[in-house]
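Side project, low priority. Logging it here so it doesn't get lost.
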Amino acid sequence: MNNKLTVEDLLRWRLLEAETEAPPAPRAARLLELARPWWERWPDRFLSLSKRVGGMQILYGHAMTEPSRAQEGYPVPTVIMRGVEEVETSVRVLDFAVREGRLRLRSQLDPPAGRAQEHFDVTFVADKPEGPLLSARAVRSIDNEYWIEADLSEKLEQEWSALKVTDPMPFRLILRVAATDG
Protein backbone atom coordinates (compact mmCIF):
# COMPACT_ATOMS: atom_id res chain seq x y z
CA MET A 1 0.00 0.00 0.00
CA ASN A 2 1.67 3.20 -1.19
CA ASN A 3 -0.22 6.47 -0.62
CA LYS A 4 2.56 8.68 -1.99
CA LEU A 5 2.15 11.23 0.81
CA THR A 6 5.05 13.60 1.03
CA VAL A 7 6.41 15.03 4.22
CA GLU A 8 5.25 18.45 3.05
CA ASP A 9 1.66 17.19 2.68
CA LEU A 10 1.84 15.63 6.13
CA LEU A 11 3.14 18.86 7.68
CA ARG A 12 0.44 20.95 5.96
CA TRP A 13 -2.23 18.57 7.25
CA ARG A 14 -0.82 18.75 10.81
CA LEU A 15 -0.69 22.57 10.66
CA LEU A 16 -4.33 22.69 9.58
CA GLU A 17 -5.28 20.34 12.43
CA ALA A 18 -3.37 22.46 14.95
CA GLU A 19 -5.06 25.64 13.74
CA THR A 20 -8.55 24.15 14.16
CA GLU A 21 -7.72 22.80 17.65
CA ALA A 22 -6.06 25.99 18.91
CA PRO A 23 -8.01 28.31 21.21
CA PRO A 24 -8.80 31.76 19.87
CA ALA A 25 -6.11 34.39 20.29
CA PRO A 26 -6.61 36.66 23.31
CA ARG A 27 -8.02 40.11 22.71
CA ALA A 28 -5.65 43.08 22.70
CA ALA A 29 -7.04 44.39 26.00
CA ARG A 30 -6.25 41.04 27.67
CA LEU A 31 -2.69 41.05 26.29
CA LEU A 32 -2.16 44.57 27.63
CA GLU A 33 -3.52 43.50 31.03
CA LEU A 34 -1.12 40.54 31.14
CA ALA A 35 1.83 42.79 30.26
CA ARG A 36 1.22 45.10 33.22
CA PRO A 37 3.37 44.44 36.31
CA TRP A 38 1.62 42.78 39.23
CA TRP A 39 1.73 45.88 41.44
CA GLU A 40 -0.35 47.77 38.87
CA ARG A 41 -2.86 44.93 38.55
CA TRP A 42 -3.25 44.56 42.33
CA PRO A 43 -2.30 47.95 43.85
CA ASP A 44 -4.04 47.26 47.17
CA ARG A 45 -2.15 44.01 47.66
CA PHE A 46 1.13 45.69 46.71
CA LEU A 47 0.54 48.49 49.22
CA SER A 48 -0.35 45.96 51.91
CA LEU A 49 2.77 43.87 51.25
CA SER A 50 4.99 46.96 51.03
CA LYS A 51 3.76 48.11 54.45
CA ARG A 52 4.15 44.61 55.85
CA VAL A 53 7.73 44.12 54.64
CA GLY A 54 8.56 47.74 55.58
CA GLY A 55 7.46 47.08 59.16
CA MET A 56 9.44 43.88 59.58
CA GLN A 57 12.28 44.08 62.10
CA ILE A 58 15.28 41.78 61.93
CA LEU A 59 17.53 41.16 64.93
CA TYR A 60 21.25 41.37 64.22
CA GLY A 61 22.59 40.05 67.54
CA HIS A 62 23.59 36.64 66.15
CA ALA A 63 26.18 38.30 63.90
CA MET A 64 28.43 38.87 66.91
CA THR A 65 28.38 35.24 68.02
CA GLU A 66 28.63 33.70 64.53
CA PRO A 67 31.68 35.18 62.78
CA SER A 68 31.03 33.40 59.48
CA ARG A 69 27.51 34.90 59.30
CA ALA A 70 28.83 38.40 60.09
CA GLN A 71 30.95 38.27 56.93
CA GLU A 72 27.82 37.68 54.81
CA GLY A 73 26.11 40.97 55.57
CA TYR A 74 22.78 41.96 56.99
CA PRO A 75 19.56 40.06 56.43
CA VAL A 76 17.00 41.79 54.20
CA PRO A 77 13.32 41.57 55.29
CA THR A 78 11.36 39.61 52.70
CA VAL A 79 7.80 38.44 52.05
CA ILE A 80 7.17 35.45 49.79
CA MET A 81 3.86 35.35 47.88
CA ARG A 82 2.59 31.97 46.73
CA GLY A 83 -0.91 32.66 45.44
CA VAL A 84 -2.83 33.87 48.50
CA GLU A 85 -0.22 32.52 50.94
CA GLU A 86 2.25 35.08 52.31
CA VAL A 87 5.33 34.03 54.28
CA GLU A 88 7.59 36.43 56.19
CA THR A 89 11.27 35.54 56.04
CA SER A 90 14.57 37.21 55.24
CA VAL A 91 17.21 37.02 52.57
CA ARG A 92 20.90 37.12 53.37
CA VAL A 93 22.94 38.95 50.72
CA LEU A 94 26.02 36.88 49.83
CA ASP A 95 27.31 38.94 46.91
CA PHE A 96 26.36 42.46 45.79
CA ALA A 97 27.88 44.37 42.87
CA VAL A 98 26.83 47.32 40.72
CA ARG A 99 28.83 47.79 37.53
CA GLU A 100 28.04 49.56 34.28
CA GLY A 101 24.39 50.06 35.18
CA ARG A 102 23.77 46.43 36.16
CA LEU A 103 23.05 44.87 39.52
CA ARG A 104 24.46 41.43 40.30
CA LEU A 105 23.11 40.01 43.52
CA ARG A 106 23.50 36.54 45.03
CA SER A 107 21.42 35.78 48.10
CA GLN A 108 20.13 32.95 50.25
CA LEU A 109 16.70 32.51 51.81
CA ASP A 110 16.90 32.53 55.63
CA PRO A 111 15.58 29.95 56.69
CA PRO A 112 14.39 27.98 53.69
CA ALA A 113 10.72 28.90 53.48
CA GLY A 114 8.72 25.94 52.24
CA ARG A 115 9.65 24.14 49.09
CA ALA A 116 12.40 25.65 46.98
CA GLN A 117 11.31 27.46 43.85
CA GLU A 118 13.31 27.46 40.64
CA HIS A 119 12.46 31.13 40.02
CA PHE A 120 11.00 34.08 41.86
CA ASP A 121 9.82 37.38 40.47
CA VAL A 122 11.50 39.86 42.84
CA THR A 123 10.19 43.32 43.59
CA PHE A 124 12.60 45.62 45.42
CA VAL A 125 10.84 48.17 47.64
CA ALA A 126 12.13 50.98 49.83
CA ASP A 127 11.83 50.90 53.62
CA LYS A 128 8.89 53.30 53.35
CA PRO A 129 6.16 52.20 50.90
CA GLU A 130 6.34 54.46 47.86
CA GLY A 131 6.29 52.10 44.90
CA PRO A 132 8.65 49.51 43.47
CA LEU A 133 12.31 50.41 43.06
CA LEU A 134 13.12 47.56 40.72
CA SER A 135 11.70 44.30 39.44
CA ALA A 136 13.79 41.31 38.35
CA ARG A 137 13.88 37.52 38.09
CA ALA A 138 15.74 35.47 40.72
CA VAL A 139 17.04 32.10 39.55
CA ARG A 140 17.90 29.34 42.04
CA SER A 141 21.38 27.88 42.04
CA ILE A 142 22.32 25.73 45.10
CA ASP A 143 21.42 25.55 48.80
CA ASN A 144 18.45 27.95 48.42
CA GLU A 145 20.75 30.53 46.85
CA TYR A 146 19.29 32.81 44.20
CA TRP A 147 21.02 34.91 41.56
CA ILE A 148 19.68 38.21 40.21
CA GLU A 149 21.04 40.27 37.33
CA ALA A 150 19.13 43.39 36.37
CA ASP A 151 19.55 46.76 34.72
CA LEU A 152 19.40 49.71 37.10
CA SER A 153 18.14 53.22 36.61
CA GLU A 154 20.81 55.92 36.79
CA LYS A 155 19.47 57.02 40.18
CA LEU A 156 19.70 53.51 41.69
CA GLU A 157 23.11 52.96 40.13
CA GLN A 158 24.42 56.12 41.82
CA GLU A 159 22.83 55.26 45.18
CA TRP A 160 23.86 51.59 45.22
CA SER A 161 27.29 51.65 43.55
CA ALA A 162 29.11 52.36 46.84
CA LEU A 163 27.31 49.58 48.76
CA LYS A 164 29.26 46.57 49.95
CA VAL A 165 27.82 43.18 50.76
CA THR A 166 28.41 43.85 54.47
CA ASP A 167 26.38 47.12 54.46
CA PRO A 168 22.72 47.27 55.46
CA MET A 169 20.75 47.14 52.20
CA PRO A 170 18.49 50.11 51.32
CA PHE A 171 15.66 47.86 50.14
CA ARG A 172 13.31 45.11 51.16
CA LEU A 173 12.03 42.32 48.95
CA ILE A 174 8.72 40.86 47.81
CA LEU A 175 9.23 37.47 46.17
CA ARG A 176 6.44 36.11 43.98
CA VAL A 177 6.34 32.59 42.71
CA ALA A 178 7.17 33.02 39.03
CA ALA A 179 4.50 32.11 36.49
CA THR A 180 6.63 29.24 35.11
CA ASP A 181 6.68 27.60 38.57
CA GLY A 182 2.91 27.43 38.80
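Brief comment: Residues 38-181 form one domain.
Revisit when time allows.
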